[in-house]
Design a protein that fits this description.
By secondary structure, the protein is an alpha+beta fold. β4 and β5 form a beta hairpin.
Length: 479
């Protein structure tokens, strides 16, 4: 069954009333999620605390004299703790994005929308904004009562205070975001002096406004209307995927009753129709209508329903994490073709990325041939090619390098490297431009274009080396 379908149990849901045009074009109604406590709510709080703690805290960490995580775009250097990456290493980032996408698909096929319910930035920041709103405006009923009344001085003060805290928190979020691209300590000093640059100011305000709008005003609308994941995640669901489901066989027919009365004696199911599962839902859906794409898998309905079942002395689990096969009394299979495929792909890609990064040589050599002339014939009879080498030290410390040239692959044995007689010292994270020339006796040339190889290595660490192929052009002597 896909998330677009409306029932999970065996009994089909009753036909729905046709939707009128007034309902289709009705003004959006604000969702007031009721506060809920329970094991899944605690897990959500733990996730929010850890993720926001990392986001706001890591920006201030220092590592080897620089910010631990800093994407320094002007300098084209990206510091990730002890590693320094350059634009030439962009394919690592692309590799990581592929792993992240496959991980999301893998988790979705196994456990549904756990990402949406516990770790999505929209969910995380919305939880914080809801917490602020409850602290200032009160409970769900208090908020609804206040919003339904006229604007008074007291109401204005409460609303103004809430939005002031929201905006302050959003601006600090924008400041932290920019702090990953501009050193955050320098950014803080410049901000206190009201001396931020135009781009820093723009992105602080832009990201702050996005946080304020998405988490404060739009909330569930982002999940329902804007997020593409809600639309295509059904392609990753099957009957063995973990979902949140209402046990229709056990809960129907629903109806209210006094505590202590056995449901079957009253001719009712275990659902007392309290609607608390609807009141706690952050997207405002009724889980009793079946699996819906608007469900973000936060499990708030499970927590509140279990509390109601406890009060009624009924077994828990009327709303629970389960699978369609389990609801139908069949065996749930964790190992199935798609999960096996995702597992193997993730293991291979992750191992490959780790190996590539650990074996990565923090040294790059770019070669540019002189475009003004193919080659030059010297008065000594030798043929010369001119190159410009760009040597990039991507290590965390400076090195002195040795440069050599070889033509063994083309059978060239008398290559002579000509450059200024000075040490090749390159500081950490710097680029050295080095003009060089290569000469050879034209009698050795067998063809017009010959492969040669530039070899560079560090004096203090010969393992830190790099080889780059270039072309040597010259006349072909008649034999």
């Amino acid at each position: 069954m896909s998330p677009s379908q409306t029932t999970v149990g065996k009994t089909p849901a009753p036909p729905q009333e046709p939707v009128s045009s007034d309902e289709v074009y009705a003004k959006h109604r604000k969702v007031y999620p009721r506060e809920v406590h329970g094991i899944f709510a605690n897990l959500r709080v733990l996730g929010v605390t850890l993720l926001l703690g990392l986001f706001y805290g890591v920006a201030w960490l220092q590592w080897n004299g620089h910010q631990a995580v800093l994407l320094d775009l002007p300098a084209r250097k990206f510091y990730i703790f002890g590693l320094t990456f350059w634009p030439q290493d962009f394919f690592y980032f692309a590799w990581l994005l592929v792993i992240a996408a496959l991980t999301l698909f893998y988790v979705t096929s196994l456990a549904g929308r756990l990402w949406c319910g516990y770790a999505c930035p929209q969910t995380v920041w919305t939880e914080i904004f809801l917490w602020i709103e409850r602290k200032i405006e009160g409970s769900r009923n208090q908020q609804m009562k206040r919003d339904s009344g006229k604007m008074t001085a007291a109401k204005f003060r409460v609303k103004a205070l809430k939005h002031f805290v929201w905006i302050s928190f959003s601006l600090y979020t924008g400041f932290t975001f920019v702090g990953y691209f501009t050193p955050i300590r320098e950014l803080a000093v410049e901000m206190t002096r009201l001396n931020l640059g135009p781009w820093e100011t723009f992105w602080v305000l832009f990201y702050g406004f996005a946080t304020y709008g998405n988490a404060g005003w739009m909330r569930e609308q982002v999940c329902i209307y804007m997020c593409p994941y809600a639309r295509f995640q059904s392609a990753m669901f099957d009957k063995d995927t973990l979902i949140i489901a209402y046990d229709e066989q056990r809960g129907e027919p629903r109806g209210s009753r006094q505590r202590g009365i056995a449901a079957r004696e009253a001719g009712l199911g275990d659902c007392i129709d309290c609607t608390l599962c609807v009141q706690v839902c952050p997207t405002g859906i009724d889980i009793r209508k079946g699996l819906q794409y608007q469900c973000i898998g936060c499990a708030a309905c499970i927590d509140v329903c279990d509390q109601v079942m406890d009060k009624m002395s009924y077994p828990k689990g009327l709303v629970r994490y389960t699978t369609e096969h389990a609801m139908a009394g069949k065996v749930t299979h964790i190992l199935r073709p798609r999960t096996v495929m995702y597992t193997l792909l993730l293991l291979a890609l992750s191992a490959g990325l780790v190996y590539a990064i650990t074996q990565r040589t923090p040294l790059e050599l770019d070669i540019i041939r002189d475009r003004n002339s193919l080659y030059r014939e010297m008065s000594s009879g030798l043929v010369e090619n001119v190159y410009t080498l760009k040597l990039i030290n991507m290590d965390t410390k400076p090195h002195r390098y040795v440069l050599e040239v070889s033509g063994e692959t083309s059978g060239l044995k008398s290559l002579e490297l000509i450059r200024k007689n000075q040490p090749i010292d390159v500081p950490s994270g710097e680029v050295l431009t080095l003009p060089v020339a290569v000469r050879i006796d034209p009698a050795e040339l067998r063809k017009a274009a010959n492969k040669i190889e530039f070899i560079v290595y560090a004096e203090d660490d010969p393992k830190l080396s790099h080889r780059e192929i270039a072309r040597f052009l010259g006349p072909v002597m008649s034999r």
